[in-house]
């Protein structure tokens, strides 16, 4: 599956439309907490199409022929120092990938991240 080919991935979970785990691998294998938290986060977020609409309102190339399907949330990234969860969707599944991320740490040993 394409989910297994994501660079720097250390774990994956695939959920069906009802939120049940279809498959999992790596660090997320057998971990029910991550899918549960992601599902609850998505439910709390509700309909995020308005975010895309705002961006498009400021875009001169706005196409009035866009369909409502074009406005569906495509991907959500939940970032932490050192790793992130990338959540993507299709009509039948939710895909969760845990990835390590490259970070530069401050030389004073404080552990603070240096962001460009």
UniProtKB/TrEMBL annotation:
Official protein name in the record: Late endosomal/lysosomal adaptor and MAPK and MTOR activator 4
Organism of this sequence: Aphanomyces astaci (Crayfish plague agent)
């Amino acid at each position: 599956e394409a989910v297994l080919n994501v660079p720097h991935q250390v774990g994956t979970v695939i959920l069906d439309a009802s939120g049940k785990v279809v498959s999992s691998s790596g660090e997320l294998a057998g971990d029910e907490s991550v899918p549960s938290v992601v599902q609850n986060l998505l439910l709390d977020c509700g309909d995020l199409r308005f975010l895309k609409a705002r961006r498009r309102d400021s875009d001169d190339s706005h196409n009035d022929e866009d369909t409502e399907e074009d406005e569906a949330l495509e991907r959500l990234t939940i970032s932490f120092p050192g790793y992130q969860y990338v959540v993507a969707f299709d009509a039948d599944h939710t895909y969760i990938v845990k990835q390590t991320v490259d970070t530069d740490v401050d030389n004073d040993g404080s552990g603070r991240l240096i962001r460009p």
